[in-house]
């Protein structure tokens, strides 16, 4: 292995050490880490480290065709130490600002969707419901008026016939029941009007 390839491998592994430190901080900030043991968190951590190992090996393969030497691990540790000592504070500050910016954009999109789409739909549905209640009220009142208009002439028409047949006594027995139904209907209707 030539000196150029060794130098290239060293620099790439130092870079990957910095990458490992940054990705660890990003992983810790973006994903919730519970204190108690959880299989989901364990599987997630295992997948994270598998992906990191594959990335490191891919970069190593591109540098020296995947030859593992002691200085490869030393360079990784050196890069991680450089990140921890020099770059961690700046990176965490930038990462916090970026996360806050993304969250503010998400909140803005949610509010925009609510005020542009959800709230108008609610208003239209309430308006349609109010309109339906008005129409039903008008139809109900028209039915009451029509029933009273039709009922009275029929009553005056059939009353002599009922007397002639002798059904007045039976009608007098039914009449209190019909009056009671009419009173109940009027009381229900008054309660609806009060609402």
UniProtKB/TrEMBL annotation:
InterPro entries: YabQ (IPR019074). Keywords: Membrane, Transmembrane, Transmembrane helix. The chain crosses the membrane at residues 7-24, 36-61, 68-86, 98-117, 124-151. It holds the Pfam family Spore_YabQ. The keyword DNA damage does not apply. The keyword Transmembrane helix applies. NCBIfam families: spore_yabQ. This is Spore cortex biosynthesis protein YabQ. It comes from Alkalicoccobacillus murimartini. The lineage of its organism: Bacteria, Bacillati, Bacillota, Bacilli, Bacillales.
